Amino acid sequence: MDRLSTVNLLPGIGPKRALSYNAAGIDTIGGLLEYYPRDYINLNLRYNTIECPTDENVCIAAMLTKKIPAVRLKNKLNITKAVIEDEMGKADVSVFNIPGFFDRMKIGERYVFYGRAKSFGGRLSISNPRVFDIDTTGFIPVYPSIPGVSQDRIIENIKTALTRITITDFIDEESRAEFGLIELSDALKLIHFPTDKEENESAKRRLAFNEVYVYRKKLAEIKAEFKSAPGRRMKKHAEMMSRFFEELPFELTESQKKAISEVSADLTGDSPMNRMLCGDVGSGKTVVAAAACVLAYANGYQSAFMAPTEILARQHFNTLEKLLTPLGIKTACVIGALSAKEHREALEKIASGEIHVAIGTHALIADKAEFNNLALVITDEQHRFGVRQREKLANKGDNPHRLIMSATPIPRTMAMMLYGDLDISNLTDMPKGRKPIETFAVTDKLRDRAYNFIKEQIADGRQAYIVCARIDENEDDYNSVESYAENLRKGSFAGYSIGTLHGRLTAEQSAEIMGDFINGKTQILVSTTVIEVGVDVPNATVILIEDAELFGLSQLHQLRGRVGRSVHQSFCILMTANPTAEVRERLKYLSGTSSGVDIAMYDLERRGAGDFLGTRQSGFNQFRFASYITLELLRDVDKYIDKTKDQ
Ligand code: ADP
Ligand code: MG
């Protein structure tokens, strides 16, 4: 038996339970060992019935004093209750749908009850607890639940797996000592069954190291594959390119020039371009991409330009059309908002080669669009897409050149880890004349002043964004946005025109709402973070971000970048309710800094890569120990890779 053996081979797992594990994505014994706890029950931290915090999971040590037989409720539910008691007072325990829950427990006996504590009229109540013998100590793992397998069974199976499998460490002892890593088999034991916090931390650090190392290795392989693939070698077209530069309404920045020459060198080289263009919001990435389209066109090739949302696709289309039409380049925008007929016609023209640059969302490539002669694929704001999506893109067409644009400024070390398969161009300077955005961190005590400030801006003819955080990842964002806007309409902003943008709208609806904001028909746009990616409304000069503490600094910086896009001075207001000292300090830092890379570095140094990698939308949520990926760890992995590269 080894890591790759199927789970049904492990003693204690029958065919039925094996199927339950399979349904949860666990096929092998190694996979079972990598089914990490999402939390731990700390049985050493026990509360009494009075001093116990509520609305969180706690352990309460108390005596069982009364059992109340099961009562039937509506909907085939039944509830069984008991009373527990300590020297401070009494509390209730209720259990749903397990009528025999208390049968094996004795009146007069003390137990530890673990569960979410609530207070009802001052009396503590805990429902569906897990119950432990009073002498149980230490940490009990809590796993993401698996239908058909109880927590106790998972624990038992993992314990068995740990004794049956020999885990060989791929990192040698000397390197482990050098980088302060514990042995892999110890790490696996301690991630499941730690006996104290420090041990658990060292296990997490070790497993984070593994994740980063494995990921980087994989990227290095992808890169090597790319470099050995044949590309569409293009020729330089100095004349067409200088015509393009002459038509531009502005002078290129130094780093734009450099990026364009790096891109041209790739396009005219032997292997396919596989490059990421990084630049802060507003640094002018679009024109670099446009230059690449021009060169492709001059060589008789088509380009595809993809944005993550339809709003952005439309916006890019407007920009690119202006930049490219003077050179005779034909563009088309393919998005869901088109009629069936328009859509079909656009696709036909792309297939025939009549359209040179097709702009759309990822559906453009993922679905059916057939190109006549596609050689360049550009993707905007690619930071939302992890390596798997990047691979998928690469497989379309025969080795097209790829340019990926990211507005998420990241420190170099981090970029190497996440984008090790790509070459990187950086836009480090901003177009001339940009004013930094004045940023204020305030508590909601100053809400009236903030609203008045927004009114002043609107009175000057400007517009405002208000961003509400989504309450939780799985929740619909509709409520937070709509009810917030409704309050404004009825209260502080009665008589103003207010639009709302959130995930429940159709593409058409959000395009219309964006359209109204772009045309100045709405004065305030209340939105979720959907506006984060690249929306460009130069007349908007103030953005108010509610519950700012819920966001990472980099994300706040991105949101802030929605304003400051014109000659008018722009403002960002970061609103918090009860900021801790740490939150205050972070927001103060953001207020004083306008460099995206510095901001990302600040978060990375203090908080690890969790903010950056942890969210679902980052595209990197496969890093399960993201918050343990620190700058120091990244450097260590680098050193280790360097040390072992000849092996
Ligand atoms: P981002 O990097 O955020 O995608 P954009 O490409 O949307 O930035 O450019 C932001 C704005 O700056 C656009 O209105 C664009 O026309 C303008 N711009 C780009 N490059 C320059 C430049 N070199 N000088 C002045 N304005 C520029
Ligand atoms: Mg952009």
Summary tags:
OB fold (Dihydrolipoamide Acetyltransferase, E2P); 4 domains; six-stranded parallel β-sheet; binds adenosine-5'-diphosphate; binds magnesium ion
Ordered list of secondary-structure elements with their pairings:
Elements: H1 15-23, H2 29-33, E1 39-42, E2 57-72, E3 78-85, E4 90-96, E5 110-120, E6 123-127, E7 130-133, E8 139-142, H3 151-164, H4 173-179, H5 184-192, H6 197-228, H7 238-247, H8 254-267, E9 274-279, H9 285-298, E10 302-307, H10 310-324, E11 331-334, H11 340-352, E12 357-361, H12 363-366, E13 374-380, H13 387-394, E14 401-406, H14 412-418, E15 423-427, E16 438-443, H15 447-459, E17 463-467, H16 478-490, E18 498-501, H17 507-518, E19 524-527, E20 540-545, H18 553-560, E21 571-576, H19 581-592, H20 596-607, H21 610-614, H22 631-644
Bound molecules: adenosine-5'-diphosphate and magnesium ion.
